[in-house]
Each structure stands twice: as C-alpha cells, then as structure tokens.
Amino acid sequence: MPSRALAAAALLAPLVLLASCAAPDAGEEATPEEGGTLVYATGDAEPTCLDPHVGGNYPQALLSTQYLEPLFGRDAEGAIQPWLATDWETSGDGLTWDLTLRDDVSFTDGTPFDAEAVKANIEHLQDPSTASSTGYLAVEQIDEIEVVDAAHVRLRLSTPKSALLEALSQPWTAMESPAGIARGQDENCQAPIGTGPFVVDEWVPQQRVVLSRNDDYVATNPEADHDGAAHLDGIEWRFIPDAATRQAALASGEVDVIDNPLPSDIVSAEGQGIEHIDAPRPASSNRIELNSAQAPFDDIRVREAFVRAADPNPGIESLFLGTAERSYSPLSSMEPLAYADPALFETDADAASALLDEAGWTERDDDGTRLKDGERLTVRFPVSTDQSTAAEQSLFEQIQENAAGVGFDVVLDPVDLSTWYGALGAHEYEAVSAPYTTVGPDVLRILYHSSGTVPAPSGYFANHAMLQLPELDEALDAAASALDPDERYTEAQRIVLESYAVLPLYDQQNHFLVKGATGIATLGTVATPTFVNAQLTD
Q1: 3 state SS of 208
Q2: How far is CA 126 from the centre of its chain?
Q3: Cis peptide before 296, with omega less than 30 degrees from 0?
Q4: pLDDT digits (tens, 9 = 90+) for 343-390
Q5: CB hemisphere CA count around 206 (13 angstroms)
C-alpha cells in the first residue's frame, strides 16, 4: 500500500496544524441539521469486496451495515429482534424453521424483498464460487429452502442449530437483491444492492466509498427513531490507516467520525467536545491461539509454559490506559454465558521453566533460547497490521520479551492482511491473534470444534488452535442442539481454557470518536455503527 501510506503522510502535517488551531468548546450546544454528508474515517483494512457474502470480515460489516439489512437483529441484552423477518416458529426437533417476512420492503433496484429473495441469498452464501467464509459457516446446516409464499419461507436443517436466528442477524448474512447478485461477483462486489438507508454510489479504491441516501427507505432497523429516510444526504467513507492522521482530521473538522482511535486519544476526548462510543464486539474475546497440531505446542506442557510466562496484564494496563480490561474467557464480556477461570492464567515463570524442563527443552543456545534434539523453541507469530492496533502490537512485543525469559524464541512477523491469511492457510504459524466476530456463544463451535480445522470455500478455517478434542466436540454439538444450552457452553469453555491452547487478552476493541454529529448508535449484533438517525451539528 505505498501510495496509501504516502497519502496519509502528506495529510498529517497540515491536519496536525489545523488540529492545534481548532480547540472545540465542550460547553457549546450543538444543533442538529437536516441533510449534509457525514465523513467517516476508518483505520480498518479496506475491503477487497463490498459484498459481505464474499469472504466475510469486519471491515465489510462496518460498511455493509449502511446499505444491507439482515433478517433479524439482537439487542444489547442478547434478545432477538425482528428486522426484515417479523416472526418465526421452530419444530420440536429443531430441524425446521418457519420465517415470516415483511411484505412492504423492496431493494433499492426495485426488486421486491420476499421469500424468493431469502432463498437466493442463502444459496449465494452456500455456493462455493461465492468464496464465503463467515456467512457460509452461518448457514451451512440449512439443507433445503422452501418458498411457502411471498411472505413465508421454510428452512430445513441437516442438524439442529439453536443459534440459527443469531446467525441470520449477522451483516455477513444480510439480504441482497437477487438481481444484483445475478450481475456477477465482480459487479456485485463494487456496489451490492440492499434495502438499507444508504446506497453505494462510488468506490475509489484506497481513498473512499461514497454512499447516498435511500429516499424510499422503510424503517426496518430497530434503532430507527423515525419513519422514512435517513436525515443525512449521504456518507463519505474514507480509508485513513494512520491513527494520528485520523485523529487530526477529526479534531480539525475534516471528518466527523473515526474508528480505532489511540487509547491516549480516547482518554483525552472528554472535555474536548468529542463523544466516545465504546462498543466491544460480542461473541469471542481477543486472544492468542497456540497451534496444538504442530511442535512445539502439540505438547500441552509447552502451551501452559507459554501461557504462564506471557504476563500480559502489565502491558494491557500501561498500553491501553484503562480502555481495555483483561479477559480470562474465550467469550466476550458482552455474552451473558461467558465463563472465566483466572487461576489458569496466573503468571509463574518458575512453573513455566519447570514445565519446559519436563517436556525435554533442557538445553539452551547462546541467546538463551531453549533447545530439544537440536531444534530451537521457536514460535512463529504472524501479526496482521490491518487488524492489530499499535497498542496491541506493542503488547505482543512485551509478551515476546516475557516468553524469552523462560527460553521461547517468539518471532513476530508484522504483515498485511493478505500475507497473514496466506500464513494461516499454509499453517506457517505456532501462535496467532485472529479476531473473529459473530453473534452469540455459538462462536465457540466455529472456533474450536474439530470441523473448524477444515477450510470453508474461501480457504479460511477458523479453528487456529487446531483443537480436535472429542469431549469438546460433544459439548459443542449438544449446545447447538439444545433449547437451553447454558451448561453445555460453560463446559465447552472450560475444556478450551484447560487445553492451554488459548490465551484470552480482552474484549475485541471497538471504539468510535465523534465530533460534529449526533444520533449515532451501534447495533447489538456485532457493534457496527448505524447512521439511520445521524445528523450533522453546527
């Protein structure tokens, strides 16, 4: 991305100057206005496709929330909300789901939203040529889609899936115009057609996506506080990878909203007329996963030694300045069923050394790295610079140093997103931090069931810890089938934590700073922002 980096560097100096001259008055009363274009600056990686059915990562979700809508939503307490679907019924065996759909909604190309559209979307997600990952995993158990009539669709599943409605609430399973899908992937990636409050007008790669208001919008979004179209005329979605440049642009008034701010900028926002929206992502926590399928982490003693030596707490406290809290669970604190066991993660360098001795890593080379049968205790750790913030990358460096104290050689490799995916696909890693956002505790099945070691059509597999434990599979399968899966999810989390294949760090961070706008909310599904109520302020 040399041209993007150059552009960011060129912007930085004048924006910093503007920021120093534009001290906002925190006491000023902001007056909302009708119309205008809101400017959003993102630090997440630019999508390679604006259709979230293809692949399925968080940057796609951020953008597509503005123009695509799901069948269901979820509120902040975890309750399912009607969206494009209004009601549902489930058979006693959990294998048949009848959905009732809204009958007053059309896609922005005029195609009606109906049962045929739902069928076309699920088939698009399941089609291997779509190369879906997140969406594919969400609907893979759907065996048959029956169009009962325009407003009713029946889904027959191969196995029970208690989390089906959560799966259908994700941005990666949102509804698209069948006519838009039929144009082909290249054209649909440029401008997917949905039912949302905004429409994709233009995508200038490495610069911006321009969205305009859908004047015919029917307010299906549960967050909408008014009927009809959005207040804004449109949104300009800019790609600004450097955090300091984004912050300077916000302070100067060049942009109205930024994501991924630095912890220091979050702390200093109060009293500067800048609103901070803290919206941790649901489902999984942010964590380091250890590849249990290959040396050295195919030995649980070596995994526990790494976990006991890592000591992330001081780094989390000093680097995140109170904006992130240590997690001891594989699930986000946003999930009511999250289970934690802090005792498993107590730092103990002496215990770590003893475990490594017991595992046969008794010799050391000149730099202190342990040896076994002439092999160094090396841990390859690819880091996606598009997904890990500067603070997180610094935390990994501290963990690298701590682990070196007991004899690990942790090789951090900062790479772009494409190279990172390639390293995972080739199993060229022993440790990785791989954010995975979905809805609800069923993320445990995606991340840790043995079936998750098999790649989706996109080539991506989610079980990076490579756990293949029969007792864990049994607990996860039972949870997927149960109407009340609480105890089974607790048991699954206990097994995951006791495997020492996962080092939880904190909730997946999701912070937004706002200056010059109001009415911005985040959805209870995957905490993406929605601008259906947003207004610029003078």
Answers
A1: strand
A2: 21
A3: yes
A4: 999 999 999 999 999 999 999 999 999 999 999 999 999 999 988 989
A5: 8
